[in-house]
Amino acid sequence: MKSIFYPANERGTSDHGWLKANFSFSFAGYYHPDKVHFGALRVLNDDIIAGGMGFGTHPHDNMEIITIPLHGALEHKDSMGNIGVIHSGEVQVMSAGTGVEHSEYNHSKTESANTLQIWLFPKFKNIEPRYDQRDFKDAFKLNEFTTLVTGDKNVDALWINQDATFSMGGFEADKTINYDIKNAGNGAYIFVLEGSVKINGQVLNKKDALGVVDISSITIDTLATTRLLIIEVPMLQ
User: Does residue 3 sit within a domain?
Assistant: First the structure.
């Protein structure tokens, strides 16, 4: 197993007042030559958006975009005609494909929202744009991973145009968790949303991450009550 440690305090940052962002990978004005992407994982932005504020209409193309509200909710509107609200516990996916425009705003006028916006390079370019959204609140079970997003249409989860899998779960302290790689050759980006874990001798605390490659399974020991997101992706060059 080969691994890359991504400490939370070494992420790129941006403070626009209404938006406080943390960039796991190079984005906008933040560039780090060793943090451009992890395989097909191109962007992982951890955003805190002030009440009533957000991102105006802007374009995307040929990118798989996954939005996960951790706290609060986002209003979404796009050029495909989709209008709605994404709450914590729900996940949104959007294949930008040949091109799409959308806007995202904090649904609350007074409370801040914390969201993850994640971009993956697509498996196939120039597909027809598509959108989907799903509520997972009733699917989560303590000490188990729930598959949120997958490129396998036979799995009961949101589909994306990439051989990737997003898994999330909450775990008690002092548990040993085994995660099996779904697609041979994929790597896994393990992101600690809450708590603390140890993987192959490396301790990870809140918002730390570990990228691991050349593996078929991962053993994770929880050191505290923990919430994890694992993003399994093809290791593109």
Answer: no
